[in-house]
Amino acid sequence: MLDFKLNFLDHVAIHVKDIETSIRWYEKTLGLKRYELPEWKPYPIFLLAGKTGIALFPADLDDTEVTFHSRNVKIDHYAFQVSREDLDRAILHYEQLGLEYNFQDHHYFHSVYTKDPDGHTVELTAIVVAEDQFYQKEP
């Protein structure tokens, strides 16, 4: 047993080709709020939903060690949890934006996946069973 407890995922840092294009996409598509801190200028730029979100950094487009299709050291995807009702609303929003998305039934969760401008997979996920059927109670 640890002497500390994790509260929630604070952020995921991602490298993007075009900072402004990515900022606009995350604001328009997911409604994330932009935070720029003068102490950290010029980067990262945070895009948050409440206290969780992403931190954007410029990509080094000359770095060829990890390719786009590599399943090696890179982020596979990241997920934001939403209510079941908001998942349905998000699907409608994605359709209005003309975004391609993929729906997956994960038994305990329903998820929708889409790609950001740099090809990062962004998941919205909603629990569809009673929380105690999935989340273990603390001992």
TrEMBL record:
Pfam families: Glyoxalase. Coiled coil: none annotated. Residues 8-127 form the VOC domain. This is Glyoxalase. InterPro entries: Glyas_Bleomycin-R_OHBP_Dase, Glyas_Fos-R_dOase_dom, GlyoxalaseI/FosfomycinResist, VOC_core. PROSITE patterns: VOC (PS51819). PANTHER family: GLYOXALASE DOMAIN-CONTAINING PROTEIN 5 (PTHR21366:SF14), GLYOXALASE FAMILY PROTEIN (PTHR21366). It comes from Aureitalea marina.
